[in-house]
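pasting for ref
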Amino acid sequence: MKPFKSLIPLEKALKTMEKSLKPIDRTESISIQKSLGRVLSEDVIAEIDVPPFDRAAMDGYAVRAEDTYGADNFEPKILRKIDEIYAGEVSDKIVHKGECIQISTGCKMPSGSDAVMMVESTDQIGAEVKMFKPVYPKENVSPMGEDIATGSIVLKQGEVLSPSKIGALAALGIQKINVYEKPWVAIIPTGDEIADLGSELKEGQVYDINSYTLSSIVEENGGAPIKFEIVPDANESIRVAVKNSLEYDLIAFSGGSSVGERDILHEVIQELGTILFHGVQIKPGKPTLCGIVDKKLVFGIPGYPTACLSNGYRFLLPAVRKIARLPPKRFTTIKARISRRVVSSLGRSQFLTIKLEGQVAHPVFKESGAITSMADADGYVDIPADVDLIEAGDEVEVILLI
């Protein structure tokens, strides 16, 4: 067993990691039905006007505005209805002086008309329609190109596609769009003590948890996880796994990052590339490792499930988003009062998992190997490295995970 020679602050570790990340350049064309959350690789320029014609903005009557001038409740203007237009219909009739056409919202304005009188301001008896107020040219009319004009930049390269932005694409009739590819992230579990789901546990073994929690973080943040088979605790096996993973954009090992006699990942990375840092001033997850092999960032994340998942949030999440060209994740926070005294490790930033009950924050951290420390949590408190004590009743900021 060898102790860590030194630990670096969390902020320095994150900055060091970020400097080594390169946003993805590969692009692909996909259906807009599958584009939610994807990042545009080019500007979208409108080739049509939206709406493509002048259309009614209200239910009512298409009129010549001048025919309504002077109308009021005592002396309404009376126009003759010559047609009716419902959704999806177009009238081939021309509105002449003293005439009107009943029209539904969204319908194309008939020739000769230049305004819509709202139905609430009318009274129809037979073919005669009384107009109780004046309207003016273009009133209650959405002009052609009002929403989107031909030749305008509708969406810019680098924008993340949301439901509303996908709606704008649909309004333009666009079926496929060019986006950046999702980064491929190799998720590599290590250790003779873990077993595949569905297999029979041998004495001393537990099921592989980390592959699934880390893959979920990757997928939730714009990446495509590639799960490797469990790698034995052997130098050559680790070396082969590193080399086989270099075709991917980012590599994350779980387990094998500590300083035990069989934790050899750091030796392999140092042999094949460069160690950026090994050991961070955090709790849990102190043995976190980060290096570069063949220009690819390689993480060594502690194998205990809570430490692995919490460090997945701290390191893997921002790394994936940076490569995927997504903006930093904005977590929701809430103020609450801590339910009991918490003693932290001075000099180490602590990821303290929290269960919320109203405005009360209950710490639920058990130990680094207990996945329920995270599964039972609504969020966490990030205790700074220079804080060693939080008294019961103190206000804390809870970063929500749900």
